[in-house]
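Lab meeting, item 3. Inverse folding demo.
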């Protein structure tokens, strides 16, 4: 099975290396037959090849069975450079961004239970770099006016709703659709129309609807009431950071970008430039995202070894997080990125 690793920017190379250590241990333990290739992208390839998205990455993207993608620091890219994250999602048609938020550390006093999956539409909405066939969805007609176009389609809303209802069937059979149709009556109205139509195909799954601003508050007040949350691109991006933080922090918030034929493991968090190059980033989120990818590969190819490897990785991360001595600094511990990875790899190997 061919895996492509894109190490990204900032803390990306550190957490990618940590994840590769865990993957190597899984490969040995479960005989996965992994062929891993790493291709530099982003600021690294900009320096050597003059582009944030080199042709080698593009070639390998289409031949890999799965991709592990570390975060990219698009904020630092010169105007006109490719956002690799958007490129990957677009060219593989990864329309679903699946972001679970579950508390993995023991709850501190005042912390509420949370175990939800946020299903975010990934291909349109307000994202100027992916919502147009040509040109950008954001433009500035005069020096003092800037406009952004938000695209909502029935087809994209329908397929993301279906992903959410399928996920709910495997969980607690409840979907919450988050919208702002009280103001964006046409665009969020269309999104809701599509979700309600899909809901009719799933009479066993309950649907409720919550306005985005109320959702931001309810997530803090009572996160335990949510099972699967489905929403458009930008609301989903923002809410998943909030849910990840409530569940214990961005450092442990995983995500999978999935389409009909491809999947890419990618943590919720960004490139964390404030701690880049210090060897202290928490690799859990990318490792847990990789566990989601292994599950996806196991389902797709009918290979139970991948499903077992995914469970082993998930449990090994939980084990490393359970011990305050092996936690990274963002969670109050003192372990460095690679020390944490060693703990996970040892646990995976049964040590
Ligand atoms: P960020 O998620 O990188 O960082 C927010 C805070 O969380 C920082 O204090 C950071 O140190 C901390 N943090 C994040 N991940 C951590 C980890 N694994 N371990 C320990 N601490 C961690 O958000 P930002 O600073 O707003 O964004 C930085 C860059 O990342 C920007 O260029 C942004 O566009 C980009 N970004 C990329 C992705 C992606 O590639 N998927 C996602 C979000 C943001």
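The presenter then showed the designed sequence:
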């Amino acid at each position: 099975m061919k895996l492509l690793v894109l190490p990204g920017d900032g803390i990306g190379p550190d957490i990618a290396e940590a994840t590769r250590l865990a993957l190597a241990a899984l490969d040995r333990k479960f005989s996965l037959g992994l062929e891993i290739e790493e291709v530099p992208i982003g600021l690294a390839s900009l320096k050597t090849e003059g582009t944030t998205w080199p042709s080698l990455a593009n070639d390998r993207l289409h031949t890999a069975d799965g991709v592990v993608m570390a975060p990219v620091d698009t904020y630092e890219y010169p105007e006109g450079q490719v956002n690799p994250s958007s490129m990957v999602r677009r060219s593989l048609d990864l329309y679903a961004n699946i972001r679970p938020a579950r508390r993995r550390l023991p709850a501190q006093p005042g912390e509420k239970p949370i175990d939800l999956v946020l299903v975010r539409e990934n291909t349109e909405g307000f994202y100027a770099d992916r919502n147009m066939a040509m040109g950008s969805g954001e433009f500035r007609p005069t020096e003092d006016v800037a406009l952004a176009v938000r695209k909502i389609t029935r087809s994209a809303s329908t397929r993301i709703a279906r992903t959410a209802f399928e996920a709910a069937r495997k969980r607690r059979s409840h979907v919450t659709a988050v919208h702002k149709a009280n103001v964006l009556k046409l665009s969020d109205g269309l999104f809701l129309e599509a979700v309600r139509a899909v809901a009719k195909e799933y009479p066993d799954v309950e649907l409720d609807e919550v306005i985005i601003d109320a959702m931001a508050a309810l997530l803090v007040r009572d996160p335990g009431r949510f099972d699967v949350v489905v929403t458009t691109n930008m609301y989903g991006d923002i809410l998943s950071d909030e849910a990840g933080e409530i569940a214990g922090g961005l450092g442990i918030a995983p995500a999978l970008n999935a389409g009909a034929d491809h999947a890419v493991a990618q943590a919720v968090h960004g490139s964390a430039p404030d701690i880049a190059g210090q060897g202290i980033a928490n690799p859990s989120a990318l490792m847990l995202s990789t566990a989601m990818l292994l599950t996806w590969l196991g389902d797709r190819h009918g290979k139970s070894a991948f499903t077992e490897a995914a469970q082993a990785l998930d449990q090994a991360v939980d084990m490393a997080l359970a011990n305050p001595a092996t936690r990274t600094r963002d969670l109050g511990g003192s372990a460095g990125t690679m020390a944490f990875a060693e703990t996970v790899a040892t646990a995976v190997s049964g040590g």
